[in-house]
Amino acid sequence: SNDFDQLKYKTLKHFWGYDSFRDSQEEVINSIINEKDTLVLLPTGAGKSLCYQLPALFREGVCLVISPLLALMKDQVNQLKFRGIEAEYLSSELDDYDAEVIYNRCKDGLTKLLYISPERITNKQFLQNIEEIQLSFIAVDEAHCISEWGQDFRPSYQNIKEFRKNNPEIPCLALTATATPKVLEEIKIKLELKNPKIFQKSFKRENIRIFTEEVSDKFQRVFDILKYNHSSGIIYVRTRKEAELLTEFLHKNQLKNVDYFHAGLTTKEKNAKQNLWNTSNNYVLISTNAFGMGIDKDNVRFVLHYSPAPSLENYYQEIGRAGRDGQDSFAYLLWNKQEIINFEQILKNQIPNKSEFLKIITYLYSIFQVAEYELPEKVFQLNINGIQNFTKLSIAKIKNVLNFLHNQEIIYYNDNKSLSSLELL
Ligand code: ADP
Ligand code: MG
């Protein structure tokens, strides 16, 4: 109703000082207030905490928040208290007396949010006390920790299932930034979410068209792309030297609206270059990953990866700097046979170390354009856990893919076609 909507906004302003909700927040809040099991998949930084903190104030009883890290709990509880909201956390650091005080405040309906670790949910003292506490709903933060396929698997998250069974009438809100179908399915099953409402924001930016291209002469190809360009862009290279050499080459070929940027510059130089780029509509910076933090330019029309990023997270963060204004934008990735050969060499002689492994997988995944983290993490995790069979299997598969790429004629993908190639992995 209208009154309720108004109250929500008033509460948001009063306790948080915000004027509006972000994408999906309001819908999630409505869903949980209507006692529906709810699953929220939003990227890190999207504002998932508010999705349970605010509705906790609107419901009778205590919202039980399950969180994987004590540091996170402390941080959130401090923030809530600072905002004037009654919140507490339980940890083994507290003595019996302190815990007792907290339980009593919950029983009296004073505390609105109680944070606990997944381990505590089987604790006898906790279970005894909770019987006398009215719970409004359960919020499971970082819900992907329940998935055995994820990098952050926490066996104790399995405990939540039993608790849900014993308290079937209490609605559950699960939140995560991991959006792979397998993990999602596992969350639904293990948390026993009943016909959950699912809120998911695409991690892929629809207005960015992605091209990956195999080229033998990258300098020449960059020149060809830039020749007809009249827009703002970023070219990512991996070393300072590369940034400078590529800039020099382009300048020699009469392309003047480009410059290099890296951490070796003085603050003054950096500011000058960034300023010029910021205020121009057709300037291109060739940069190491020193350039990016805090970029706040709407009309970046393209991001070109001269070399692949060191991890998929970096890669998506970097291409995500294009097209913030929602206009059509492009991401190019250039790769070549020599890079493939180098990786093949590494795999031939030894089992790669952690960072090499991540690099190879990122490389392949950015070529094939899979906007998912699932497989790399899975393979990666198996590798660092040292499960030899799986490691060998994974590397064998990677070798297959490398071999496939090695033997291809020039490949040119755009985002529509690439998925079929994935069968190889
Ligand atoms: P997530 O858990 O999704 O990673 P957080 O809940 O930690 O994200 O929130 C990230 C940041 O966004 C926090 O600083 C939070 O205060 C801010 N934030 C959340 N919702 C809003 C909003 N509606 N308006 C402005 N800032 C918000
Ligand atoms: Mg969070």
From TrEMBL:
Q: Where is the Helicase ATP-binding domain?
A: 29-197
Q: Which reaction is catalysed here?
A: Couples ATP hydrolysis with the unwinding of duplex DNA by translocating in the 3'-5' direction
Look up the record and report any one GO term of the cellular component aspect.
replisome
Q: Would you tell me the protein name for this molecule?
A: ATP-dependent DNA helicase RecQ
Family the UniProt entry places it in: Belongs to the helicase family. RecQ subfamily.
Q: Which region of the full protein is contained in this chain? A: 4 to 428 of 633
Query: Which GO biological-process labels does this protein carry?
Result: DNA recombination; DNA repair
Q: What EC number(s) is this enzyme filed under?
A: 5.6.2.4
Q: Which residues form the Helicase C-terminal domain?
A: 218-368
Is DNA-binding found in the keyword set? yes
Q: Does the keyword Nucleotide-binding apply?
A: yes
GO molecular function, a single term: ATP binding
Q: Which UniProt keywords apply?
A: ATP-binding, DNA-binding, Helicase, Hydrolase, Isomerase, Metal-binding, Nucleotide-binding
